[in-house]
Amino acid sequence: MDMALSAGRGTASFHRLQHPASSSLLVPRPEIGNEFQRKWEVKEEIQVQTIGYDELVQSEQEVSILKLDIQGAEKLVLTHAAEGLSKTLSLITEVNFTPHYQEEGGFAEIHQLLVERGFGLYRLSQPYHRGGRALFADFAYVRESLLREEARKAMDLPQ
Asked: In three state form, how does the secondary structure of the chain look?
């Protein structure tokens, strides 16, 4: 069954935009279309079934990596994923610096949430810029315990 990753099981409105890659569970901010020089209008709104990350991975012992690129809904998913994130070793997520959607989480909120859940920032991609403004980037987070272990190895320190 096709489902959208969200806060939990249920239904939600999915906003299909004229540019399909920008479609989201969140309502788009029309003014961001100016940054991309394209229409940022909702073409149609459809109801979709949703599932939370906790439920999605409940039968897994461990998740090596979670990749989230869900058009601003990352905070919505991560806020309701304590159990699933506790068994996740690393994640890559796109984070917007300039708000694209209503109620999205920006870098500061996503970073704080992940730090509180035991992750540390490992790497980030080159931010996507348009007209001098940083719009978004991909961030890689790894369990803090794994980062510390790798740092010890790199410096050849005893455990």
From this structure: CCCEEECCCEEEEEEEECCHHHCECCCECHHHHHHHCCCCCEEEEEEEEEEEHHHHCCCCCCEEEEEECCCCCHHHHHHCCHHHHHCEEEEEEEEECCCCECCCCCHHHHHHHHHHCCEEEEEECCCEEECCEEEEEEEEEEEHHHHHHHHHHHCCCCC
**Is 159 part of a structural domain of the chain?**
no
pLDDT value at residue 157: 59
Question: Which residues span the domain enclosing 91?
Answer: 4-154
What's the pLDDT score for residue 40? 81
How many structural domains are present in the chain?
1
CB 89 within 8 A of CB 118: no
Predicted structure pTM score:
0.90
